[in-house]
Amino acid sequence: MLILSTLTSLLWLELEYEDNILLAMIGNLKLEALFATTLFTYFLIQIKHKFYNSRIHKWLYLPFVIFVILEIPVFYFNLYGSISEFILFLFRDTLAIIFNTVLIFCSRKLILEATIISKDKRRWVLRLNLFMILLIMCWILTRIEAYVFQSFYTIYLLTIGMSLFFWWVLYYGIFKLQIIAQKEEIHEYLVSKKVTSSPIKKKIRSSTTSKVMTELYKLMEEEELFKNPLLSRLDLATRLKTSEGYLSQIINQELKKSIIQFVNEYRIETAKDLLHNPVFNKYSVEAIGMEAGFKSKSAFYSAFNTSFGMSPGAYRKLHKSPNSSDLDVSVPIQ
Which of 45, 184, 192, 249 has the maximal Cβ count within 10 Å? Predict the structure, then answer.
């Protein structure tokens, strides 16, 4: 973020202070070399790739070190504005673009091949990576325009893109990704401690002879299929080897409710158990809703309010245990 904000400032300041030697030196340091390496490192951390701990990884900072060394004689002899400085700048600029492009696309390949990352986190890092690719494309366009047409209009497009990126990272990178991390931590804790929510034990009516309903309860209670936020009628029907229409019909006949109402009952019950448990008091309500299987905060709040006549947060406060500060969560949020 610091690198991007610095680059954005320099793009504007260079237009007004072209003769400022100190500013020229900072601009020529090619912070873009740090930009690619920093992001590549961030992606390695998120997907827990073994390359992060290797010695070779440290060599990715070598281009920036080289750029700094090359800048020393230019600054010492005050060659700014000369043909020698322009040739050196062109060389470093081209190398920086290539370096950024290679690292960003390499990181995308590693993200797609990663096997120990959740779907939500993979979606986040892939979106971040795509944003970086778009910024690099804008960066290349600014250089083409500057060298070929001697104009700088696309620089404004690049600065606007960076500004949007800042806001996007602040919301998704700090807030949304934290929710995802909390959701994963809750899940890891439940698995490690073998803590399970109290399942809704449905009793099939004596008049029910449908094997479909029996299998449906099994999927919900044993496999916890309801925790999949993307679960659809087609998914359930496929697992039950029946049609969507017949599944909807039999649930409506037996339970007088829709499929989504049936599935949400399990999600609400799971969320209610987690909200009751003081171990999870430090986690956000939205993270608990995601662990229960809700796709979004609004869907969780709406379903919970329909069932209990209050929001999940109000429900937690109402049923909060006096010993809620005694937590036993040892898995750190990453």
Answer: 184
